TrEMBL record:
The keyword Kinase applies. The keyword Kinase applies. Keywords: Kinase, Transferase. It holds the Pfam family APH. GO terms for molecular function: kinase activity. This is Predicted kinase, aminoglycoside phosphotransferase (APT) family. It comes from the Bacteria. Residues 26-249 form the Aminoglycoside phosphotransferase domain. InterPro entries: ACAD10-like (IPR052898), ACAD10_11_N (IPR041726), Aminoglycoside_PTrfase (IPR002575), Kinase-like_dom_sf (IPR011009).
Length: 338
């Protein structure tokens, strides 16, 4: 079952997706809190549809048109992405903007602990994560047609202003620790070093698809938050995620014996990434991790607000995730102190 108007989608695909033929059925993916995503099964094969949520949305959020554009641009690069097929900007078709892409079969790994794998596989997948992240940051923006994909200027100054605004717009209760984190991120911000690359914006293991029987990445998913900016934002986001507790909610590595599991330390992963790009290790890395905690806290606050307003993709999960916001603020402050 799904909440899609399948007759409308089928009619639109018949006109806009080459080779499409029905009948069409759909199943909603349960994962994800941002843009509702559906597996489409048709006579012509399998597809994936991503749409904006219905209801009142924060300005510039849920940008499925940007997802479509960047994946189309990356199709001919070293970054593995699904092939996008068509974008529908006419909200009258199903009630919101959406796009359709090819379905990529692969192995989705929900948590960085990779509990179902053996140590050797875990090590190879971690190395592949570093390699693919380096490939994203090494994309030739001019050749890919993405040189205007984000505004110029200091990335962290821009992002702090944006996410502080998003947080305030979705605030449901006053959190003094989040106020302190926002203030300190502004006061302690590094100077702009002029580095400008494509950034994914939500790079983590559950947004990647791997081979069913191997460790190569087949696709990087969920490009909604992508822009042009500073590459250490993506790198720090990986390290930030690993500080969380393991399990379905935290999806981190805190407290685990990484050596025994075949998982790299934070420093080892940073070294893999820097080696793949041929760059020096970043200085003041604690700031970048602190910023990642702040931004994820702002994102989860938005998830909580949508759950309370009744237009979240998964309201129950949204409320559980929103409960992490105070902890993210506290951990961000701790990384600034480190």
């Amino acid at each position: 079952m799904s909440d899609l108007d399948l007759s409308a989608v089928s009619a639109w695909m018949a006109e806009n997706v080459e080779g499409y033929r029905g009948p069409l059925s759909a199943t909603k993916f349960e994962v994800g809190q941002s843009n509702p995503t559906f597996r489409l099964n048709a006579g012509s094969g399998s597809y994936v549809l991503r749409r904006k949520p219905e209801g009142a949305l924060l300005k510039s959020a849920h940008a499925v048109d940007r997802e479509f554009r960047v994946q189309k641009a990356l199709w001919a690069t070293d970054v593995p992405v699904p092939r996008v097929l068509a974008l529908c900007e006419d909200e009258s078709v199903i009630g919101s903007m959406f796009y359709v892409m090819e379905h990529v079969s692969g192995r989705n790994i929900a948590e960085p602990s990779m509990t179902d794998l053996v140590p050797g596989e875990r090590a190879e997948i971690a190395r592949e994560m570093a390699r693919v992240l380096a490939a994203i940051h090494d994309v030739d923006l001019d050749a890919a047609g993405l040189s205007d994909y984000g505004p110029p200027g200091h990335y962290y100054a821009r992002q702090l202003k944006r996410w502080a605004g998003q947080y305030e717009a979705s605030e449901t209760e006053h959190l003094p620790q989040m106020d302190r984190l926002i203030a300190r991120l502004g006061e302690e911000m590094p100077e702009d070093d002029g580095t400008r690359t494509l950034v994914h914006g939500d790079y983590r293991i559950d947004n990647l698809l791997f081979e069913q029987e191997g460790t190569s990445c087949r696709a990087v998913l969920d490009w909604e938050l992508s822009t042009l900016g500073h590459p250490f934002a993506d790198l720090a986001a990986v390290i930030m995620q690993w500080q969380m507790p393991p399990g379905a909610e935290g999806r981190g590595l805190a407290g685990l014996d990484r050596d025994a599991l075949g998982l790299p330390s934070d420093d080892a992963f940073i070294e893999m990434y820097c080696e793949a790009r041929g760059i020096a290790r970043p200085e003041r890395f604690g700031y970048y991790v602190a910023f990642s905690f702040f931004r994820m806290g702002a994102i989860l606050q938005g998830v909580k607000r949508r759950a309370l307003d009744g237009n979240a993709s998964n309201p129950e999960s949204g409320l559980r995730l929103g409960a992490y916001v105070p902890r993210f603020a506290e951990m961000g402050l701790a990384w600034l102190d480190s």
